Amino acid sequence: MPDIRYICVSDLHLGADNSLLTHLRSKTGEVNPHQPSEVLGWLANCLRELIRHNKGPVKPTLILNGDLLELALAEDNIALMAFERFIELMFPTNGDQLIDGKIILIPGNHDHHLWEAARETQYVEFLQGRRSKKPLKELPSPWHTTKMLTPDLVDSCLLNAVIHRHSHLTDRGVHVGIVYPNLCLLNDDESKCVIFSHGHFVESIYTLMTTIGDFVFPRRKAPEQIWGIETENFAWIDFFWSAMGRSGEVGKDVERIYDMLQVPESRSRLIRQFVCAGGRHWFRRWPKLGERLASLFAPIISKSLKHVGVFEKTQVDNVLTQDAREGLKGYIEGPLAKQIAAECRKPMQAQTTFVFGHTHKPFSVSLNFATFPRAVSVYNSGGWVVDTMTTEPIHGGAIVLVDQGLNVVSVRMYNEVENQRRCPVKVEALDGSENPLYAHVAHLIKDDQDPWLSFSKVVAENVDIYHKRFRDRLNLVNQKK
Fold first, then answer.
1. What pLDDT shows up at residue 129?
2. Both 165 and 302 in a single domain?
3. The pTM is what?
4. Does residue 384 lie in a domain region?
């Protein structure tokens, strides 16, 4: 019977008022970071039930595959206190810890700033001689990525400072190390590998600066390696998706605007508000005339904002749209394959599994990619955010489990449905009949018993609440007209 060796979750968005794992206050837009949400509590119970059946003494390593914190739409201190509640459940004061003390974080777009802080730490440690035994006459540029195979993890000073506020966590050696943007686990005989990446580079919006560079300088050589792509686009990603939470009250308004951009009817109304406000500003003596003249520019503004409405997570007709499928293919065959070749000095020959999140739409599928000898097993871990007015069954969250032999299963914790109790927790694996971990986990999860039954019930109740919260936030914007 295989033990669970790695647990991967993504898109927790701790601190966000649309995250099922953040405790809400009664007032719209406000959260209570001093308490864990009910869903988070039952999620911890489910993890405990899985882990307690491990036979060996080694606790599983937790891999946080991006968007752990919500740094775009929540203030830093709120997100960090929500993270404290999460860590307290993983390492209870009076009880056995659920996971190993070494936690691995792969930042995403919404917590990208954690990587920016970490890479500065990485460079300082290099200057201090802790990352290089050989002194150099000239200083190299700071690195924008880490190795993916056997990476030298970079401490997250911010998260570790939060952890060290608790003496029992310090005593247990709990700490977070960062790798970015890819992590690869490879078994001893190199027959299997599992690659983790948050997945934001699957969407072209996150390489906007590269696109602009190609347009302005069509003859330039665009970057093909992941470190070049990150170098060109890190500031853009950090600015828009990982810094808004520092904007105080304006940040809260940005969140409401972002919400409106997800809904076509609200988006049109928002654009009208934009152009009318602009017209009144430029024609202060004749505001009505200004509104009429400005309305002529509404189609132009609508076109400029069009790309915001087509984020992959908002496309609910398919778990992977054609654009996202092409983006995934481009990323795996391009910068990911090149990083593998650079570090291994040869193409990947192992049976490969690729695990990502970002889209908030969990799925599992087998796909063929150039440079990979066999079909790649692709798992998406979904997310824990509710940011639509109505139920979207394609949205949901999953936990990806890996054993010592690098067998992989996905535990689909929930999908949004009208009656969540009709959507029980389930186990899926693309190689189910040949996968010993699948048989083991499927035996453990009994969806008609606790903690699984109660988890599904609590999620059902909370999804409805969070849908209402989303509608209420939109109404707040309308009231400000």
1. 85
2. no
3. 0.89
4. yes
